[in-house]
UniProtKB/TrEMBL annotation:
Record-level Gene Ontology MF annotations: ATP binding; protein serine/threonine kinase activity
UniProt name for this protein: Protein kinase domain-containing protein
Pfam families given in the database record: Pkinase
Span of domain Protein kinase: 54-338
Top-level taxon of origin: Eukaryota
Gene3D superfamilies: Transferase(Phosphotransferase) domain 1
GO cellular component: cytoplasm
Amino acid sequence: MSKSLQVLAGMTDFSFPEVNTLVEGRETARHKLQQAVQGILNDGSNIDINGKMYECYGTLDESQYSFACKCRPVDDASTRLWLKFYVENDTIHVAKEYQVLHSLQQEPATLSFVPRLVDIQPRKTLNGATCSALLIEMGTSTTFLHIVRGQMEKSSQFSVAHQLSRIVRALECLHSHHFIHGSLNMESILIFDNDKLKFRDLEHATKFNGDVHGCASASVEFQPPEIARRILSDGCEGSDGSSLSAAVPITASYSFDIWSLGIMILKMYSSSKHLDEFNGCDKPADMLKRLADPSFNFERSIALYVPHEDVKDLVRQCLQREPSFRPKIDAILRHPVLQTYEHEMALQLARSTIVVSQRSGLSTAKIRDDKTEYESTPPSLWFFLPPTEIGLDRCLSIDEWVAEMESLLEKKDSCESELEFPLLFMCEASTGFHRPCDSTGPYKSRLSVPLPLISLVVPLVQEAMLFLEAKAILSGDSALHIAQVSGLGQRQWSELIKFYRALEKMVLTTVSSFTLMMLKPLEEMLATGDRKNTHQVMDEVKYLAFTQEKRDYVQSLLEIIATSSATDITAAVSKSNQEWFGLRKCQVEIDDTAVNLCGTRWFCRNHLP
C-alpha cells in the first residue's frame, strides 16, 4: 500500500468541507479541471501520482462528480487502470468512494465485487486546477445493461435469476460491511476480468445511518419515494442539472438499495426501456413528483414485462412504499427465485461431476432421465458420517481425524476407488422440544455420498445444525444438549463435530458464498441465546428446509447420489413410502400464512403424534 493510502486508512488527513460551502465556483473549477485533463490526453504526456509515472490515453469520461481516463504505469504497459479526478469542491465524494473501496480491500472475497484500489492523491494541482486523484482497477466497457440486452433470455426465469443472483451477491457484500450503494442502476456495474461483476462508481456510497444529500439525475428513476419526497420538500436542482439535492439530508438505509434493486429487476425484463409509469416525464423533477405520489406504483410494468410469478412477488416486496416493509438482503437470498436457481445450479454441478467421474473411470453410474418412483417428499435435514472404514466409535482428536482421513484417501487413490460418506437423516419435529430424539444411530441409511458431491450436502448439514441448536435452546427446563436433541448421544456427537472440523481443516468441505451469506444472520441470532430470536431462527429454517420446492430439490439430489453409487433407493424404503430409514412420515397442520410450506414431516418414534 502506498504511503498516501496508509495515511488515509483512518481518513485522518481528509478534511470534509460542509455541504454547499464550496458550491460557488464549482462549475468554474470543473471546467478548469476538464481542460487540464483533456490537455494531458491531447499531448500524450505522462502524469505523476505520488511519485509514480502513468501514461494517460483514450477519451475523457465525465460523471456527476468526476472526470476519468484510462492509464497505465509507464513501466508496465500491460496493466490497465482507471484514473479519476475530483475538483476540490467535491472532496467529500472522493472520500466516500475511497472509504468503501479501502474497507473492502481487506478480504479476497469482497474484491470480487469492487475494483482494486491502487492509489490516491488527496491534493494535486494540474495546470492550476486543484483536485484529488483516485487510481483504481479498470474493468471492460461492458455494463450490466449490455449483459441484460445481449446475454439474458427474459422468457427463462433461470436466466433472469442467474443475472439477479450476481447483483444480489454484490449488494450483499456492501450491506454486510455497512455501506449502501445509493445510486444503483443498470450502468453502475461493469464486467471485469474473468466475467466478474463489480460496482463501477461508488461516489454515492454512504455508511449505514450516514447522511444522503440527494441523487444524480441519471439515477432518479431508481430512487425510492422517501428520497423523492425529501428532495421535493426542501431540495433544489443543481445548476448543471446533473444532481438533485436536499437542504436537510436523509438518513441512509439499506432499504434505499432494495427499492433500486426492484427497479433493476423490472428493467431487466423491459430491456432497460423507460418504464411506462414515467411516460410524460420530461425532467428528473417530474419523475420525483410521480415517485412521491402516495398512489404511485409499478403494477402496470410488472404485469406488462414480468411473466414469472415468483419474480413478480420479489419485485413487489422490493417496491414497498413503506421502507420498513422492504426485505433485507438476506431475506432476498432466501426468496424462492434465488433458492430455485441455486438448487438448479447445485444439481447441474452434481450431474457434471458424475460425468467427469465416468470419463475418468471412477464411476460406472449412469444418470437416469426417468422420474424415480420412490418417496417424492424425502427428509431435508441430513448429516453425513465418517467413512465406514473409520466409523464413529473411536475417540480421536481433530488432528487424529485428519491423519485417519489422509491415510484413507491415499488407500482409495491407490485402488482408484471413491471415498464415500454414509448419510443420516434427522427427525424434523419442531414441537415437543423437551423430548430428546430417538437414537438415529441404528438407522444409518444405505446411501452414501461420494467425496466429489460432498459440498452439495454441506448446506443441508448446516441447516440441520441450526435446527437442532434451536431445539436445544427451546428445550427450556429440560436443558437438553444438542447431542440429545440429535439422538446420537454425547460421545458420537462429539466425534461427529471433530470429524467435520477435520474436513474443514483439510479443505474437503467447501461452502458456497451464497450459503454463507444466507445462514450467517441465523447463526448470529442463535448465538444470542434469546428465545425470541431462536423461535425466529426455527421459523426461518422451516422455510429453508420444508418447502415443496426444497423437497423436490432434495429428491433430485438423492437420485444423483444414488446413481453415482449404483444404489437402489426403492429397495431401502418401505413399499408404503411411510418410512424412511427409521423415520416415519406424518402430516402436520400448516398455518394459512405459511405460504409454500409443505405439510409433510419425518419424525422419530419419540415425536410421533
